[in-house]
Amino acid sequence: MIAPSLCQAVRQKADARRPNTAPRRRNGASHWGCSTGGRQLVTDTFTIEGMNPDTPDSTRLAAEAVPLPTRGRSALGPQDWIDAALQHLVDHNIDAVRVDVLARKMGVTRGSFYWHFTDRDDLLKRLLAHWRNTTTDAVIARFKGRDPVTVVRELLALPAHGRTAAQASSVEQAIREWARRDPTARAMLDEVDNRRLSYFTECFSSLGHQETESRHRAFILYGCMISDSLVGGPGNELARQARMARVHDLLTAPAPAAA
After folding, report:
1. Which of 17, 87, 136, 225 stands the most exposed, by the fewest C-beta atoms within 10 Å?
2. What is the pLDDT of residue 259?
3. pTM for this one?
4. What is the spatial distance between Cα 135 and Cα 79, in angstroms, rounded to a whole number?
């Protein structure tokens, strides 16, 4: 609780320094005054509690009474919560992804979460949608219309794209583990797998393969990408590149003639 005498001293100093400041509101908190509605007085860099009345003139007294959750809302957007939840999912498991845990980790109140999400389920659904959009829809959009032989080569190289690929692999492993026991995550994973396989099938169909052959090659391509991402393989990077080059040649070769 801020002492009335301190509030009065702060107001007098503020009014003396800004003679043209508009009159303060009488009901609730004013722009330059102390809170009277159960809110904490916050400045740009510190709270009014502990403020020295003899603060030098070079320090601008910009105290405004605002609810602390509003400050959290303005500093953090929904994507910040989604990113934090994804990282916590990777580091722990889906059961550990809770609003109170994320709030403590991000240094904000639980209240700021509810400016962006209705509840935990809403966060998790939007997390899954974000994962689908960034790891599937955006990748397909980037490759659309390009030469399918080049697309297959670049798809096989995706798991080796450094730290970004390693993080994407960790997220995918965590989501696949989550999907083993959660129907919502399972439904999103099935949707992602189907979208990827459908696009891969299109690539092979555009190379002249029949529908069944295209689906078979799409599944082999996807299996190679996932195994390379999740478990890697023997040998160094040169060995990996040679192995993926061989897979590429096999997948893009003409279909064997019918007997």
Report:
1. 17
2. 55
3. 0.69
4. 15
Domains along the chain? 1-66 (no CATH), 118-252 (1.10.357)
If one counts every other C-beta atom within 10 angstroms of the C-beta of residue 202, the result is 15
Percentage with pLDDT > 70 across the chain: 69
| Confidence label for 105 from pLDDT (cuts 50, 70 and 90) | very high
DSSP notation for the chain: ---HHHHHHHHHHHHHH-TTPPPPPSSS--SSS---SS--EE-SSSBSTT--TT--TTS----EE--HHHHHHHH--HHHHHHHHHHHHHHS-GGG--HHHHHHHHTS-HHHHTTT-SSHHHHHHHHHHHHHIIIIIHHHHHHTTS-HHHHHHHHHHGGGSHHHHHHHHHHHHHHHHHHTS-HHHHHHHHHHHHHHHHHHHHHHHHTT--HHHHHHHHHHHHHHHHHHHHT--SS-HHHHHHHHHHHHHHHHSPPPPP-
